[in-house]
Amino acid sequence: MGIKVQQAISLAVAGLAAGSMPAAIERDPVRDAALKKLASVAGERGWSVAVLRDVAGPEADLFFPGGPVEMVEAWSDLCDREMMTAMAETEEPRLSQRVKQALLIRLPVDPAMRSGARKGFGVLAAPCGRGALRRSLMRTVNAIWQAAQDDSSGMTYMTKRFTLGAVYGATLLYWLSRGQNEADLAAFVERRLAGVLRLGHLKTRLSGGHKAARHAEPYAASA
């Protein structure tokens, strides 16, 4: 994974707190089918109009007038939706473990998907793709909380999404570079979430008192 991709992802994660939730992008079954065909070969052949036409038909590019950047952004949204569907029947009672499940489903140990994602983030790391990268990360973080069945609102809603943005960004970079082992990836996610929980407990101790503990609890629960 290139330095430019790492820098672009880190900058996009840092900018999540300053942005509002982006609008939903176009969704269509035929468009989704074209994306899946492209994603299956993108690791080897890249994200391009020519490859899309080759694998999904000569007019498939009409679905993506924005070119490769739009393709990768739409594919990220499709992966978010598939993750949410996979999480719909979870019976895990703990929020932190539901978040972990969602993260590991969203970033599976799949060589073809990781390879395609590396090429995709190369597209979004270009100056013309930075906005799409930030939007994609924000949608994914929000989708993970939705999949985890979190119902927070107000400042807690924003705090949790910003906190998870940092966790997801770190996990994403690890997954892209070294995410070929499921146990190692799961352990990495556990460490990141445990770090958030420890920070929440530390804030509670520093602020002191039962009232502060009650206010800090939703934040700590986000781990």
Automatic annotation (TrEMBL):
Residue ranges annotated for the COQ9 C-terminal domain, each copy included: 135-199
Family matches, as Pfam families: COQ9
The organism's place on the tree of life at top rank: Bacteria
Protein name, entry field: COQ9 C-terminal domain-containing protein
